[in-house]
Every structure is written in C-alpha cells, then in structure tokens.
C-alpha cells in the first residue's frame, strides 16, 4: 500500500524552481529518507506535503486522497504530522505537558477541554497522561517528564519534538533533520526510536544530513538536487549511484560514518 504519493509536483519561488516535477511514492511500511545537498529542495518538499506551501503544479495523495490545499492543522487531524528543523516547543510547559498537547489533537475532547478539565474528560486525561509517559519512555525522556521543556538540552528538546509529533497518533510522520544537533548517544536513541515507530506501523518520511542515520534506518532513499529527483532506491543502491556521488559529494563515495 502507498501511504503518500507525490506526483509531478513543482514549486517555484520567483525564478527558482525549488521543487521541479518531483514524483515518488512512500510505501505504508518502513522508513523513507529524502536527502540532497543544501538548497536541493528538501524543506520545500516537506512544506508542500504538510500543507505549509501549495504546489504550482502536481498532486499529493495521502492514503489515496488529494491533500493539495489542505491546511496543516487539518492534515494533522487526519494523521499527517511534521516536526521542524528549529525546535518549536512550549518552553514553560513541562516535558510531559508538551507531549500531551500533541496528543490532544486526536482526543475527543480536544485541547480546549483539556485546558478547562471538566469532570467528564478526567478518564480521558488519565489515558492521555499514560500514553504521554509511554512516548517519553520511548525517546528516553521519562526522567525529565516534570521539568520545564526549556531546561532540557538541545538534543533532548529535539527528541521531545519527535515524541510530541507521535502523540498526535499519526499515520505518517515527517521528521525534518531529526538528528541535527544530537550527540552520538542521542543519535543512536533516535535511530532506535525511528525503527520502533516504523515497526508499530507509523510511516516515517525524514530529511536527514546524517548519512550514517540514513544508511542505518532508511528502507528507501529519494535524492534531490537543484529541485529535481536524481535517484531513488535502497540505501546501498543510492549511495553507489553515479549521479548521487557526483551531485552530493563531488565524486567522493558516501561514507556511512
Ligand atoms: N520562501 C522562499 N522564497 C524564495 N526562495 C526559496 C524559499 N524557500 C526556498 N527557496 C529556495 O528554494 C531552493 C530550495 O530550498 P530548500 O530550503 O527547500 O532546500 P533544502 O534542500 O531544504 O536546503 P537545506 O539542506 O539547506 O535546508 C533554494 O534555492 C532556496 O533558496
């Protein structure tokens, strides 16, 4: 089954074609990575898929439904969520509450009710807290559940963002450079988290510069260069692809760290 189908998508900014006639499918199962040199169009592609930008041409299907023109909040409610390169947490809320905010996207009572906390939603609240703690355990942040998010290290904040995105119960999660700024231990944790969520049936699409992470966790890789797709396939195929080697590293083979 195809979770996401990007079909001949083009986005121009003035004279720059940020995304030019890009097509690829993301299967329901597994981890797909989008890689490419700086300015290749990765972030633009993510913004098109997650509803922050609208393509000039092309179609984007999420579980078979054309989602072009749908706003990000509507897409999130339908099960398509993203994280950002820059951390976007609520700094004064606790780590746990940051995850709960993400989860209230999918609960019946919603965020407003969660804030007002009427008696009828208390049972739901307990379930939300339990699930949030599970997600914090998954990303290794249970110890700091009650700390304000602003006291966490940068790497911890990035892992918290991943937990918050998962809290919304997505079918497709877009992770924008999740390993950027992580130390080696956090990066290892992240790779395990990504594999676990994919095994649990959540489709993962990620942009990543950390090649060792891509080679370790991705089942498929899509390579962009100057807004165009130049290759796609299994990590081993892509790293050996002449166009990728030429575009990406000026002729040096991709190292796997
Ligand atoms: N809002 C914008 N207005 C004008 N040009 C833009 C805009 N967003 C992106 N671009 C241009 O589109 C091209 C693709 O940019 P994009 O940020 O998508 O690439 P990227 O692969 O994510 O790069 P990086 O790895 O540096 O984050 C670049 O030439 C960029 O300058």
TrEMBL record:
Quote the protein name from its UniProt record. Answer: ABC transporter ATP-binding protein
Q: Which GO terms describe its cellular component?
A: plasma membrane
**Keyword terms:** ATP-binding, Nucleotide-binding, Transport
CDD domains (UniProt xref): ABC_Mj1267_LivG_branched
What superkingdom does the record give? Bacteria
Q: Spell out the molecular function terms from Gene Ontology.
A: ATP binding; ATP hydrolysis activity
**Residue ranges constituting the ABC transporter domain according to the UniProt record:** 4-251
Family in the record = Belongs to the ABC transporter superfamily.
């Amino acid at each position: 089954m195809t979770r996401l189908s990007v079909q001949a998508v083009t986005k121009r900014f003035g004279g720059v074609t940020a995304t030019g006639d890009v097509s690829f499918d993301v299967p329901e199962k597994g981890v797909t990575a989008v890689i490419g040199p700086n300015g290749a169009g990765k972030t633009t592609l993510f913004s098109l898929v997650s509803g922050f930008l609208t393509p000039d041409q092309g179609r984007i299907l999420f579980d078979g439904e054309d989602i072009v023109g749908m706003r990000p909040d509507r897409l999130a409610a339908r099960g398509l969520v993203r994280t950002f390169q820059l951390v976007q947490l609520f700094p004064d809320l606790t780590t746990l509450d940051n995850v709960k905010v993400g989860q209230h996207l999918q609960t019946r009572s919603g965020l407003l009710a969660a804030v007002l906390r009427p008696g009828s939603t208390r049972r739901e609240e307990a379930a939300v807290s339990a699930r949030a703690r599970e997600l914090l355990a998954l990303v290794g942040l249970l110890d700091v559940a009650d700390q304000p998010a602003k006291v966490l290290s940068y790497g911890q904040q990035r892992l918290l963002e991943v937990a918050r995105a998962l809290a919304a119960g997505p079918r497709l999660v877009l992770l924008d450079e999740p390993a950027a700024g992580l130390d080696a231990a956090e990066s290892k944790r992240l790779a395990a988290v990504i594999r676990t969520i994919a095994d649990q049936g959540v489709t993962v699409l990620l942009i990543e510069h950390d090649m060792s992470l891509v080679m370790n966790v991705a089942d498929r890789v899509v390579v962009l260069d100057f807004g165009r797709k130049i290759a796609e396939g299994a990590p081993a195929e892509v790293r050996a692809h002449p166009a990728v080697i030429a575009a990406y590293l000026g002729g040096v083979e991709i190292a796997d760290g």
